[in-house]
Design a protein that fits this description.
The protein is mainly beta. The protein has a single domain, classed as Deoxyuridine 5'-Triphosphate Nucleotidohydrolase, Chain A (Distorted Sandwich), CATH 2.70.40.10. The chain is built from one helix and ten strands; from the N terminus they run E-E-E-E-E-H-E-E-E-E-E. The strands form three sheets. Strands 1-4-8-6 form a four-stranded antiparallel sheet. A four-stranded antiparallel sheet has the order 2-10-5-7, with no helix packed on it. It starts with 6 loop residues before the first strand and ends in a 27-residue tail after the last strand.
Length: 148
């Protein structure tokens, strides 16, 4: 099977940083680094972080921006809109919205792996308006209706 080809443009402030990469053969996500000068993210603060990269994702695909589990567990750093979607027609800089849900300030350094990209196929659908939906076993039950 041929790999999906995603074109990557390094912006000027990405100089010296690695391209996103998988850390193991079985990894689904491609780690992406901060291209910002070093900064501190205070508890409960949010910040948009530049990566210095722009992507050309093929039509029919998206890139999902997801948190890194180690940063979430160790420091409480996560992404407030996860997974974020990078659409195939977006050509601007990849930016990562980060939030510190921890109790201590966290230093984020230039080159630090801050998020991961997972590339997924996106299905096109046709929405058909109907007066009534067909019944299902579950019906309208939601938010805990199937158990704890």
């Amino acid at each position: 099977m041929m790999p999906l080809v995603v074109q990557v443009q390094r912006l000027r402030h990405h100089d010296g940083l690695p391209l996103p990469s998988r850390q193991t053969d079985g990894a689904a996500g491609y780690d992406v680094a901060s291209a910002e000068p070093d900064f501190t993210l205070e508890p409960h603060a949010r910040r948009l972080v530049r990566t210095g990269l722009a992507l050309a994702i093929p039509p029919g695909y998206e890139a999902q921006v997801r948190p890194r589990s180690g940063l979430a567990l160790k420091y409480g750093l996560t992404l407030p809109n996860t997974p974020a979607t990078i659409d195939s027609d977006y050509r601007g800089e990849l930016m990562v919205a980060m939030i510190n849900l921890g109790t201590e300030p966290v230093a984020v350094t230039r080159g630090m792996r801050i998020a991961q990209l997972v590339f997924q196929r996106v299905e096109r659908v046709e929405l058909l308006e109907v007066a009534e939906l067909p019944p299902s076993e579950r019906g309208q039950g939601g938010f805990g209706s199937t158990g704890a």
